[in-house]
Amino acid sequence: MGVSIFIQQVLNGLTLGAVYTLIALAFSLVMGILGILNLAISEIFMIGAFIGFSLIMSGVPVWLALPGAMAVAAVISMVIARIGYEPLRNASHITPMLSTLGFSMILQNFATNTWGSDPMQLTLEGWLDTRFHFGLVSLSVVQIVVFAVTLGLCVLTALLIQRTDIGRGLRAVAENRDVSRILGVRPRRMILVAFALSGLLAGAAGVLVGLHYSVITPYIGVDIGLKAIAVMIVGGATNIWGALLAGPIIGILEVLTVAYGGAAMRDFIVYGMMIAILLVRPQGLLGGSSKTSGGRV
Amino acid sequence: MMSSYQAGLVADGSILLLGALSVYVILSTGQLSLGNAGFMAIGAYLSSWLTVSAGMPLTPAIVVSAAVSAVFGLIIGFPALRLKGLYLAMATLGFGEMVRTFFLNFEPTGGAGGFSGMEHVPLWYILGWTAFVLACVMICERTRWWLEIRAVNDDELAAGLVGMNTTVTKLMAFMTGAAIAAVAGALLAHQNLYIEPGNFGFDRSTEFVLAMILGGSSLAAGSIVGAALLIMLPELLRDFVDWRIAIFGALLVAVLLVRRQGILDRNVFGLAKFWRRAN
Amino acid sequence: MANVLEFHDVDQSFGGIKALTDVSFDIPQACITGIIGPNGAGKTTIFNVITGAYRPDRGSVRLNGQEILGLAPYRIARAGISRTFQNIRLFASMTVWEHMLLSQAPRTPMLSRILPSRAVAERGERMMELFGISAVRDRIAVSLPYGVQRKVEMARAYAMEPKLLLLDEPVAGMNHDEAEDLRQTLQGLRDKGLSILIIEHDMRFMMNLCDEMHVMNYGRKIAGGRPAEIQRDPAVIAAYLGEDA
């Protein structure tokens, strides 16, 4: 009994961890390439969840709702890049972060006025509402979807960054913006690409979290999205692959805390871990020590 | 005579001004704190517990809370010295959330249910504290201590080579900010008569930052303008009251794009000085 | 004559690259000592070791006989070493006058920080007069022309009442007349007892200014002595001809 509950919790933790991984990846793409913290990502994630929910409720199939929400999220993210980041890119790093804070206020207010601040419920039907049982442990179809989509998006992101010209451009901008311009990379376009990618991932995470919990509120941005900052830090803010390790770790840690320590303790544990990492190993678990400088992005 | 509604607005504005000042003092050394709601929570809970459960008069309770919060500022500030810019902002954000969840779990002060039983303070008492803190900060701004703070913000390395102990300067700023936020928290608790952990979330910390950035981040007077603006604007825009957060957000972006130093800056006073000399 | 600074047997490396190898020299009291050498020879590294920005692998740096290696930069500054920077580092938000007040702050008692004392104010005025910047006292320092900013930086450094003043390329950006004025100012300070260590590219300026010179190349000291001796040293001639003549 005890063991199967534990395994069940680990599975649930991995599901939450997958969502964290995607949002943390969204944060660290912008952080690793442009060196700024885009606080609006947590609200883009929330908007993604609402768009996905609304589409599914109006009868759009999940496989279409997901890219739809991702596209909307990417567009919002690109608008923020153009208005809120680019004019400020030569200011200190704090200034563009504050402007993204402005955008997150706008997005959250938009959501509360459009969808109300009460929780929004989704009833899953058909194949989505299936669970597979293995003894006392069960796994829902939604969880499998979450794992598959997360894995797929991570692989696609990795291929894009490591194997394509766009990826090389992004890495060049991450190394040195002025040099990258000499090499023929257009930094303005790369900024837009980085923000768009980050929006796509955050939007996908929103849809997945909605499916997984089947309840969302306009406050999931602050409740879940901001915690992805902790995931990013634990993994290593300038190494985007750190999120792949830290997401599952924090997801499992959080679910186990809820199961064995009490629901209210979980944020304490997650943020505590972030601060501990910042103090002991600021570069994060996978962070850029000199020997891995080639793998900064 | 003021209506009680107007009195409430003035009280809210004063508390917001104190919060903005608490961020301002820390930011003046180039450190952005996104966790001052945490210090505010410490001040609110500790002072309330002291007055309600320990029977202490309010004024000494506020002083004690501010001192304890300053010690927390030291505990947070010391390791935070190793962190710069965004990393410090993220660490303080984490600290703020940790304090909030601590009180969520801390049953002696009511946990999630909140804490009550405080006695209401008159408006003049809140205004008195606000004026006192504001005066202290504005006097500090005219001392050489503030020159040192600005030097750390401008160029920390050069400040060290001019013989300044930048560590002490930054820690002092952090402790001062923590103490001011605690005063704000204590006044909030004895104004609202009920506090819960949700009062001290991330949005509270950002409200402080917002007021200070809008009003002007290079001088204390800017926070007055910012706090007044945030309190007055919803009154002026009653038709759009549902959209006030979005309007504040848009205002923040606009100010950063058009006038990064905020509505007021040092030149406003520099100009006044120039006129005086010319006449 | 006593030495104000003794810089002995210093090795400094970054990663695998040796920036300084076994460098030694003394700075006599009330003298102007120069360090010359091609770019990348290690001149600014010496400044960074003296002011505590770098921790060398080996060696000793003594100020009036007291070891200062390993002290925090601000302690070294308070012990009596102040410097200027090759790429000027003034405080961006401050006027010239505020620079004068600030640079004396660590040396004055706590109370006088509330109201700047008359002594502090007078010294500030004197510094500005000495370097000819009194006319721009209320201007934001970084908004001034390059040459004037260098003077503000020197005034800031000298206002700290240093025992040793380090100047990193002080005449860069100055015209001939300004450089000549500066030479006279610095020699005047030396005659009043100040010890100065100076890095500069302008050889003619250095020959006229310095009492003693040390020549660096590839992180090693290749010569040291009076300017006239340096000029004739075959190793120096080789190093300079070898670079770009």
UniProtKB/TrEMBL annotation, chain A:
Principal subcellular localisation of the protein: membrane
One Gene Ontology term from the biological process aspect of the record: amino acid transport
Subcellular compartments: Cell membrane
Record-level Gene Ontology MF annotations: transmembrane transporter activity
Keywords on record: Amino-acid transport, Cell membrane, Membrane, Transmembrane, Transmembrane helix, Transport
Pfam families per record: BPD_transp_2 (PF02653)
Top-rank taxon: Bacteria
Membrane topology: Multi-pass membrane protein
Annotated transmembrane regions: 6-29, 36-56, 62-85, 97-116, 136-161, 191-216, 228-256, 268-286
GO cellular component term, pick one: plasma membrane
PANTHER family per UniProt: AMINO ACID ABC TRANSPORTER PERMEASE PROTEIN, BRANCHED-CHAIN AMINO ACID TRANSPORT SYSTEM PERMEASE PROTEIN LIVH
UniProt record similarity statement: Belongs to the binding-protein-dependent transport system permease family. LivHM subfamily.
Protein's recorded name: Branched-chain amino acid ABC transporter permease
Automatic annotation (TrEMBL), chain B:
Cell location: Cell membrane
Broad class of where this protein is predominantly found: membrane
Entry keywords, A to Z: Cell membrane, Membrane, Transmembrane, Transmembrane helix
Membrane topology: Multi-pass membrane protein
Gene Ontology molecular-function annotations: branched-chain amino acid transmembrane transporter activity
Tree of life domain: Bacteria
Gene Ontology CC terms, in alphabetical order: plasma membrane
Native species: Paenirhodobacter populi
Protein name, UniProt field: Branched-chain amino acid ABC transporter permease
Keyword set includes Membrane: yes
From TrEMBL, chain C:
Span of domain ABC transporter: 5-243
Keywords assigned by UniProt, alphabetized: ATP-binding, Nucleotide-binding, Transport
Presence of the UniProt keyword Transport in the record: yes
Domain of life (superkingdom): Bacteria
Name of the featured protein: ABC transporter ATP-binding protein
Gene Ontology terms: cellular component: plasma membrane
Gene Ontology biological process terms, A to Z: D-alanine transmembrane transport; L-alanine transport; L-isoleucine import across plasma membrane; L-valine import across plasma membrane
